[in-house]
Amino acid sequence: MVEKLLLPFSLLADPDATAIKQYGVWDEQGEIARPAIFVIDAAGFVRYAYVGKDFADRPGDEPIFEALEKATRDTQ
User: Fold this and answer.
1) Structural domains counted in the chain
2) Is the dihedral of CA 39, 18, 22, 24 positive or negative?
3) Distance of CA 74 to the CA centre of its chain
């Protein structure tokens, strides 16, 4: 996905749902993770968090890229 979208950052998978549950995005009723995006800086701080209500609830690109830019700038 990173190569396909030419992303300048890594994406992580969580097949055992360990992080999904720790970040509070696991939907017990649906037994699936709600769509979520977290921007975490180099120091491990969450700089941006978006958790959707259902599979179609997703943020636009602008706030995500702004958070990525700010997190990168602040940790340099």
Assistant:
1) 1
2) positive
3) 19
Tens digits of residue pLDDT in 3-31: 888 888 788 888 888 989 999 999 888 88
pTM summary value: 0.71
Could you tell me the residue range of the domain that residue 62 belongs to? 2-74
Q: Round the CA-based radius of gyration of the chain to a whole number and report it.
A: 13
Rounded Cα distance between 21 and 49, Å, is: 15
Q: What is the pLDDT of residue 76?
A: 63
Cβ(47)–Cβ(39) under 8 Å? yes
Q: What is the CATH number of the domain that holds 68?
A: 3.40.30.10
